[in-house]
Amino acid sequence: MPELAVRAHRLAVRHLLRIEVGGAYVSKVRQSEKDPRATRRAMDLTASVTRWRRWLDFLLSTFYRGNYRKVEPPLKQILRIAAFECFVAHRPPHAAVSRAVTLASTMVRPGAGRLVNGVLRTMLRSTLPEPSSGDTTDDLATRHSHPTWMVRRWQERLGLPRTLELLKHNNQRPWFGVRCTPQMPSVTQLKAQLTQLGVAWQEPAWLHDFVRVSKVGPLLRAGLMEQGRCAVQDEGAGLVVRLLDPQPDERIIDLCAAPGGKTLYAAERMCNRGAIITNDMHEGRLQPLEVAANAHGISIIEASHADARRLDIPPAVRVLLDVPCTGTGVLAKRADLRWRRSPEDLDRIALVQQELLDAAARLVRRGGILVYSTCSIEAEENEAQVAAFLARHLDFVVETAADLVPSDVVSREGFLRTLPPDHPADGTFAARMRRT
């Protein structure tokens, strides 16, 4: 049995335990491992098993003799990894079972290996069941490993066919947007470097300075990000900046700026002339932006740290408000987010968004622009939030996005809106409003 695979799987078990038991995030569970290949494989397993957790547990609980809920946490993660490899990724079952038996015997207890072998061998000999609870939406959510409440909302609004496409999209390994910066001589050279690094890439859907890539690890290891030659940014986020339409020599406010990708792109669109006041409640969250700005040769960013709802600074000609949201437009990239959200979160977050919008309105000069954006696909955070804001603030009017972004991402109401998998981008919403 290859030692690399065993190390990667052992590391994945530890990652999954930290996520489920310790509350860590998939993107934050980096651990020391001498062989970077093992780390990469472990992270891929961690994200995949996290996405498919509900479906894997449905299968395992069907074949496990006893109360599956009481299985020791490490043993449950080992079973999930093996079930994922056998029944989702369709990798050679002999190797998957052998690794699982070894890990169970060494990480749990000697007898656990026999238990794992018995469960997995029985599953491999059997016809896998399909969910049949009597609630078709619940069954759909189980089969595609999403929370039922989330799937029910989408099915009511989008219909079954589009919901099914969205669920499948969220469970696929995502592609990433990469933006070429002024530090890179040309997009052509960026593409050449991607090819040299063995990274599969695709042409952008809308923005000429972007490229879609299958993975970003090789770019990081090659130092392209550290050197400021490119930046990881979804094309949907780039469209938000295009909707803001920042101009050289303007003063702009970015209220919820971290991690800062839109700020940097705005500064580049301004030719590094003018000023961008960035704000975030937590000081540490803007430190990576400061480092990246230096690498990108950007010097017009001024950082502030305060609750944006109580920020007292002079108004600006353009204000970007990229609010905290449920993130239902980025579930493919944030594998654990679907399990961290609840129906109650929607009401709580929408209230924060309302307060932030009211605060942002005070910071827009007469005749200035406010762009409100989310990475959510929920109407309460998007269209309904804007409608309520306009009802409270009669001195603001919507300006159509059609003059600034491609027509296929402009809604009937004139908003910027992308919805996977209809568009090759994250789920993005943005409204451009002018203060009269």
Fraction of residues in H or I helices = 40-55%
Work out the oligomeric state of the chains in this entry. single chain
Rg estimate, integer Å = 23 Å
Major beta sheet summary: 8 strands, mixed
Order of helices and strands: HHHHHHHHHEHEEHEHEHEHEEHHEHEEE
Q: Average pLDDT value?
A: 95
Number of distinct helices:
17
The CATH architecture of the largest domain: 3-Layer(aba) Sandwich
CATH superfamily of the largest domain: Vaccinia Virus protein VP39
Write up this protein.
The protein is an alpha/beta fold. The protein has four domains: 3-125, N-utilizing Substance Protein B Homolog, Chain A, CATH 1.10.940.10; 136-170, no CATH class; 176-232, Alpha-Beta Plaits (2-Layer Sandwich); 235-435, Vaccinia Virus protein VP39 (Rossmann fold, 3-Layer(aba) Sandwich). 45% of the residues lie in helices and 14% in strands. The chain is built from 17 helices and twelve strands. The chain has helices at 3-20, 36-51, 53-63, 73-87, 93-107, 112-125, 136-143, 148-158, 160-170, 187-196, 217-221, 235-244, 261-269, 287-296, 337-340, 343-361, 383-392, and strands at residues 176-180, 201-202, 210-213, 230-232, 250-254, 274-279, 301-304, 316-322, 364-374, 396-399, 416-418, 428-435. The strands form two sheets. Strands 5, 6, 7, 8, 9, 10, 11 and 12 form an eight-stranded mixed β-sheet that branches. α13 (261-269) links the parallel β5 and β6 (274-279). α1 (3-20) crosses α4 (73-87) and α4 runs parallel beside α6. The longest helix has 19 residues, at 343-361. The mean pLDDT is 95.
